[in-house]
# Entry
Amino acid sequence: IAFRPRIPSTHPEMPPVNRPPNDPNNSLSILLKFTIPTIILLITILTKRQHNCDASSIYNEHDRIIEYRSRNYTFPPQYLPATRGWETLMTRRFEQISRIPSSDDRWEGYMQTSHASYVLNNFTENCWGLTRAPDDLVEELRRAVRKNLASAVKERTVEVIEGAEPKFIHQGILMRKVLKKLRSMHEEWAGVPLIGNNAYGFRLYQNQSFLNMHVDKPETHVISC
# Structure
């Protein structure tokens, strides 16, 4: 399940949408989010060239440095949080990424890890922790798995899972109950009000299933379990 911080807004809160991780609607929104600004930038550049504008007279290194310093940028950037433990972990992870043979996979690894190490805020002291869910809720989840195990279906392809395909059990009503019941526990741990974002269901990993290292969606999967 995943939560996102509650941000004050004048708009009414939208109910959570329980979409699987590889929902095409999610992919479309991400595509539009990054594609449209890129297209606008290209049109702007081409328009300026059509008007015979000298690019060097518009953008130059001197102006770039001034803008860089005005934003208080530094290089190399500082890890967030700037602790010895986090620096050791992230330095080791970047070194691992540098050994990935595929340039595409290596680029993706650098992008994800840069977000995790330099950009995203930490809401907790230790980033993760162990606790116990309410016993009655745990037992209800166990009963649901046992009851529906025989009818579990194969989950659609998830890019970060390799090996044997996991099985999946959809339990929409029960997942919404879990999202509501565990919110206060996560709020206490994170120290901020949260909004339930999604709870997919039961993913049943098989022998020889591998979940690769990855970074979840930073817009929605902020506090999760």
In short: Residues 119 and 132 are 30 Å apart (CA to CA).
